[in-house]
Amino acid sequence: MQNKTLRKLGAATVTAALALTGFIAAAPAQAATKTIGIAYSLGGRDVPGFNQLAYIGVKPLLDKNKSIKLIESQDNPTATDDQRAERLRLMAGRGANPIVVVGFTYAAALGKVAKEFPKIQWGIVDDSSVKAANVQSIVFKEEEGSYLVGVAAALSSKTKSVGFIGGVNTPLILKFEAGYIAGVHSVDKTIAVKSTYISNFPDFSGFNDPAKGYEAAKGMYENGADVVYAAAGGTGTGMHKAASELGKWSIGVDADEATYPAHAAYKKTILTSMLKRVDLGTRAFVADALAGKKTAGVKTWGSKQGGVGYTTTGGYITKAVAAKIDAAQKKIASGAVVVPTDPTKA
């Protein structure tokens, strides 16, 4: 299964603490060697999730060719667009090409810097707003993956009430909510779906506030929900804690959250996780760039491309439930089912 592959690769990504400069240097960039750059979003590569998946994506390329070097940097909660732009300039100046930029928070910065370094091939995860001849948008059909775990939630709920927690109210996270609602209602339209957001754009604190995630999930569980799905980064840890205390189900996002070291105490409460294969997206982009292929444009990863999925760690998804989820995914991949991206139309 996909989750087993991610778990095996993810175990190899534990690294030393980041330098105060915000960079990890695998080795000094040299003119004669190829260098890959990765600019992470909040948390860096050692925190499981889409940041770590970006690293997991390029690691096989590094293992295959030891002459390829890697330089990395990460965002911080108080960074401005100008500071992000300067961070990208520094990576470019050190010889990195291609460079993967993780997260839509880099969009404004990349829009400026890509023009300054037209010979560098840039890839940005989760944003398609940067239009340039040297930028690839690596985007995902999160609504499709969320639909799948919505099916799992509906088939596992006994109270006919489930919940959704979004980290930050943005168009991206609304896609998660829309897909989840649609998946739930594809099974049973009478199931109630309660939704809440921890913060509103441009306040990104909702992606890293476990305490608020705990309170939001606890409120949903105490008001009848028995399954809650969070697309909220580190905030989701609070949801898992609440589910564990109250004997309810929780659903993770992006990677197999049941395998996260920080979630060891909550493994028995995590029903499944929605897989968002950032590793596949970044690997394909970097491999093409290193091979000298043109990479600019929008590359979308959905069910048809194997870009989204779900996990079965713990065995809580029975064979019967898995069969129904897989059937739904086949319909989505074939185009027989089109998943909405707007919660009001789910």
Automatic annotation (TrEMBL):
Where is the protein found, in the record's own terms?
Answer: Cell membrane
Alphabetically sorted, this entry's keywords are: Cell membrane, Lipoprotein, Membrane, Signal
Q: Does the keyword Lipoprotein apply?
A: yes
Residue span(s) of domain ABC transporter substrate-binding protein PnrA-like: 48-340
| Membrane topology, from the record | Lipid-anchor
| A GO CC annotation given for this chain | plasma membrane
Signal keyword on record: yes
Belongs to which family? Belongs to the BMP lipoprotein family.
Q: This chain belongs to which protein, by name?
A: Unannotated protein
Q: Which organism is it from?
A: freshwater metagenome
